[in-house]
Write a structure and sequence with these properties.
Layout: E1 2-7, H1 13-22, E2 28-32, H2 44-59, E3 63-68, H3 71-84, E4 89-90, H4 96-106, E5 109-114, H5 116-120, H6 122-131, E6 137-141, H7 143-150, H8 156-167, E7 175-180, H9 189-196, E8 201-204, H10 206-219, E9 230-234, E10 237-238, H11 242-258
Parallel strand pairs: 1-2, 1-3, 2-9, 3-4, 5-6, 5-7, 7-8
Antiparallel strand pairs: 9-10
Length: about 260
């Protein structure tokens, strides 16, 4: 049996990358709902239907667990998905709690970067309220980074001007930790680090999600001796063309390079 990963596009590969490091002998299905990317800019109920359609497909592929490798999808659908399906379903959410702890030690603020839909969801708002006792958490949607990632545009010549413009509303010296609250954003860690400075920690939830996946598989005695094989799907169609598969492999290589910046 395999492990499923779902995202609206290629962002979830950043979470799959962590799973491959922690669980290299598992086999995987990665489902990118490219017909409906981005999720974070669409109405909630519309996105919810896309998610359930995708998970219906994944559930028929003999999976033993599913990772919702998208902060937006997690925030609006993970609880309802768990009620419908009988295999473990893991989500990912912005790593606000460790960021607040880290920045309080530094006497600095936290900046959460995510999609509009994630930031306005009650799940995120309640998370911040429960731990932000000193009012140090700020947030900012960065839909342009999702678009850059889906266009395989990672050059600093394009990315840095966008980031400078979007972040210009803040005094960046006030922040000690930046949270990447969208799985598309880890592709841009080096650009963000260049802009923020080396003293600012950049964190995301992918490592914690991968470790939680391993824990659940161990508890259920479902660890595999697989080959690390990955089957890619785009909105229900299996990806078989060599160009796309090569691009996905390049993304994993890019994340190997970026991972040195992960806290």
């Amino acid at each position: 049996m395999r492990i499923g990963f779902l995202d609206s596009g290629i962002g979830g590969i950043t979470v799959l990358h962590q799973a491959l490091k922690i669980l290299p002998n598992e086999d995987y299905i990665f489902y990118a709902d490219t017909l409906h990317v981005p999720y974070g800019e669409k109405p909630k109920e519309e996105v919810k239907q896309y998610i359930f359609n995708a998970v219906d497909f994944i559930a028929d592929q003999d999976v033993k667990a599913l990772v919702i490798a998208c902060n937006t999808a997690t925030s609006i659908a993970v609880e309802d998905l768990r009620k419908k399906y009988d295999f473990p379903i893991l989500g990912i959410e912005p790593a606000v709690k460790p960021a607040v702890q880290n920045s309080e030690e530094k006497r600095k603020k936290v900046l959460v970067l995510a999609t509009k839909l994630t930031l306005k969801e009650e799940k995120f708002q309640n998370l911040v309220k429960s731990i932000d006792n000193h009012d140090i958490v700020e947030s900012l949607p960065l839909p342009g980074l999702v678009q850059f990632a889906e266009e395989f545009e990672f050059s600093e010549e394009k990315v840095l001007p966008y980031l400078r413009q979007q972040l210009s509303i803040f005094d960046l010296k006030q922040f000690g930790t930046v949270v990447l609250g969208c799985t598309h954003f880890p592709y841009f860690k080096s650009s963000l680090q260049k802009l923020l400075g080396e003293d600012v920690d950049i964190i995301d939830g992918s490592v914690g999600t991968a470790k939680n996946l391993k824990r659940i598989l161990e508890e259920n005695n479902q660890m595999n001796n697989g080959t690390g094989n990955i089957s890619f799907f785009k909105s229900g169609d299996k990806v078989e063309d060599e160009t796309t598969l090569s691009n996905y492999k390049k993304l994993l290589a890019l994340l190997d390079k970026e991972s040195s910046l992960t806290k």
